[in-house]
Design goal:
heterodimer; A: alpha+beta; Rossmann fold; 8-stranded antiparallel barrel; 29% helix; 33% strand; flat; B: Double Stranded RNA Binding Domain; 6-stranded mixed beta sheet; 3 helices
């Protein structure tokens, strides 16, 4: 009897270790690599996107970022962030953005998977072939056992996170380009050149329902705290948004450290609504999402005074 | 009997691991920034990886010299070069050590921007020597650049 139990426990441990600690092949998705935060600039140009150096996911080589998935993720991120007026295909735009993946470093075993990604970002003005940006973007993301028990899923989350951060940094680098800003002002004429561009984002700005959905798709894990409460009641918490409409809240200093619930984005009302099971913190109800700076956000309760503050990586 | 089952399970897992990692996979790719002309480069520096005990930098430098470039190598980058060459080599053990993957990147010395990059990946049954890997990666980069 004891021998039977020993054999079953051994087999269970072996299978658990193999499944939980190794990262096999689960392809990253374009939706998870999308960056939804509004850009700090809105250029009145069209852009086309080319991606190179990516590798398809396979059972033998493991999860990878493919050219196609990265291209669509970058295009969707540009549309969601409104960095450019439009995204076009076949190099027919005012600018051409080329992204070359040069390194995707992945671990093969472990409890935490840290993936590092390096990509070259180049932006070229199509009309005269002027290169306005050439930059190496390096990013890294760690997925832990808290994010996923299964190794293949954890690896996918780590790769998606590294790619998402790479895209966010790349778009931010483009938003900070003085050359494009000067170009767009010059094209609007001398009067426009003398005043700040009307397309510049001003804060605070309330996000639309579509923006809210894209925002939370880009930032599925958020470190937040209640902003309006007394300091003693401002316990920081981690909000994790799952793709199936469920949310988890981890709050080590709370009476109930772990909680779960549901989240719905009401696009027509431009609100995000949470329903927490068993816990009052941070608060159940609907919120407006207000961006107060390039990286800072507030969820403001609709019909109640709760404010939840958090920041995101640029 | 349960011990036999455990042994059977272990044997199955070992068989799966062996059969799925021993296949011959060959993959060689190269990517060039479309705005770059590698022919305009004259002097290159191969930056030696601190953990490289196999002198891969020397192999790369020799291969580039054979293509007509002035090439230096070592840890210190000279001030006047047209490009810096970096590489990442991954090794595995299967009876003996072999190079699983080699990535070579030709960079702009001013900002490390990747002007061109190539990668070769060969598993154990299709293993190549380091010199052959270097030859294949650089060959693919210049072949892509010549298109």
């Amino acid at each position: 009897m004891r021998t039977t139990l020993y054999g079953r426990v051994t087999a269970f441990l072996i299978v658990t270790a193999l499944v939980g600690l190794t990262g096999c092949a689960s392809p990253p998705t374009r939706e998870a690599m999308l960056v939804g935060a509004p850009a700090t600039k809105n250029y009145p140009y069209s852009v086309s996107v080319q991606t190179r150096g990516g590798t398809e996911t396979s059972a033998m080589t493991g999860a990878n970022v493919s050219n196609e998935e990265l291209k669509v993720a970058v295009e969707s991120s540009i549309v969601a962030s409104k960095l450019f007026k439009s995204v076009v295909q076949d190099r027919n735009g005012d600018y051409e953005l080329t992204i070359i993946i040069t390194q995707l470093t992945k671990p093969v075993f472990g409890a935490s998977f840290t993936v590092e990604m390096e990509a070259g970002w180049a932006l070229t003005k199509v009309s005269d072939k002027t290169v306005v940006l050439r930059k190496v973007i390096k990013s890294a993301h760690t997925a832990t056992l808290d994010d996923a028990i299964v190794g293949a899923t954890r690896m996918r989350l780590a790769i998606e996170g590294a790619a998402r951060k790479n895209i966010a940094q790349g778009l931010q680098a483009i938003a900070e380009l003085g050359a494009l800003e000067a170009d767009s002002r010059a094209e609007r004429g001398p009067t426009a050149a003398a005043v700040p561009g009307p397309a510049a984002v001003t804060y605070p700005r309330t996000l639309s329902g579509q923006d809210i959905a894209a925002h939370f798709a880009s930032y599925p894990s958020i470190e937040a705290r209640r902003g309006e409460a007394k300091p003693t009641r401002q316990a920081p918490f981690t909000l994790r948004i799952r793709g199936d409409g469920t949310v988890e809240r981890s709050c080590p200093r709370c009476f109930t450290p772990s909680a779960s619930g549901s989240m719905v984005v009401k696009r027509d009302d431009a609100q995000v609504c949470f329903d927490w099971r068993r816990v009052p913190y941070p608060a159940s109800g609907c919120f407006k999402l207000v961006q107060t700076s390039a990286t800072d956000f507030e969820m403001r309760g609709v019909g109640f005074e709760t404010v939840i503050n958090y920041s995101v990586a640029p | 009997m349960p011990l036999k089952k455990t042994a059977l399970l272990l044997a199955t897992l070992a068989a799966v691991a062996t059969t799925t990692t021993g296949c011959a996979i060959n993959r060689a790719t190269a990517t060039i920034d479309p705005s770059v002309n590698l022919g305009s480069l004259k002097a290159m520096h191969v930056a030696k990886q601190p953990k490289d005990d196999n002198d891969i930098d020397v192999l790369i430098a020799e291969k580039l010299r054979s293509r007509g470039y002035n090439v230096t190598t070592g840890g210190e980058k000279p001030s006047a070069v047209d490009a810096v060459v970096t590489y990442v080599d991954r090794w595995r053990w299967d009876i003996t050590m072999y190079m699983l993957e080699l990535t070579i990147t030709i960079r702009d010395p001013k900002n490390d921007y990747p002007l061109a990059s190539g990668k070769s990946y060969h598993t154990s049954l299709a293993r190549k020597s380091p010199a052959e890997m270097v030859d294949e990666v650089l060959g693919n980069i210049f072949k892509e650049a010549g298109r």
